[in-house]
Amino acid sequence: MKKKFTLEIATPCSENFDKMVPNSKGSFCDSCAKNVIDLSRKTNSEIARFMVEHKNENICARVKTTQLESEFVYNEVSKMNNLKYAAIAASVLLTSSVTAQEKEPVVTEISVEPTHHLVGKIAVNQHVKKEISIIIKGKLLDAKTHRPLDERAYPDLTLTINNEPIPVKVNPKTGGFSIPVTLSKDDKVLIINISGSDYYLSKVIPFDAKSVKKNIFQQDIIIESETINKIYQLGGIRANFVDEKKE
């Protein structure tokens, strides 16, 4: 029998999941002295099984906002059906084994066509991109106030540019940042990724190599704070099961 449900966090929590202490059951939250289960890294089928098996428990979890918009389906199989399926599987396996023993091996002839090769000089047309190593400096500012983003609302903000592997922390007091990058002189834009705790925003800004002075490209990043996407939510979670009879 299929069970359908959606997830709900009625009162989201503002605690920082990344600062909780991981353990075998999840991550321990000092604020409410509970283990928080990270469901954000689980598949839909894993979440469905977990919620059905723990539906009568008081669970605190972290989920993606997209998971709160999804409908989960769990196929609950009775014990009788499990026994029936096991018996059928055993019967099929036994029949397949006997049939395989009765069959004689089939010999297959494979003909290989000759491969023709061309021999000669290969000309390679290469377009060599001229790379430059520079430092991008500026401030991350709110478009409405032209001040740094509120540290309490958006803690631990970091920046990466053009998918550089190591993020750089933004100064919460000034909004200042300094990021060393290697670019091509032909690049016309920079891809800025802003992240912090449960938030994320990607923004494209123009770039002109002629604006680089003494290996420094000065560029402030102005964003509207409400456009920052909420990736995760944290708090007491419950499954709202769908009554299929009413559908």
TrEMBL record:
Organism domain of life: Bacteria
Name of the protein in its database record: Uncharacterized protein
Organism: Flavobacterium pectinovorum
Organism lineage string: Bacteria, Pseudomonadati, Bacteroidota, Flavobacteriia, Flavobacteriales
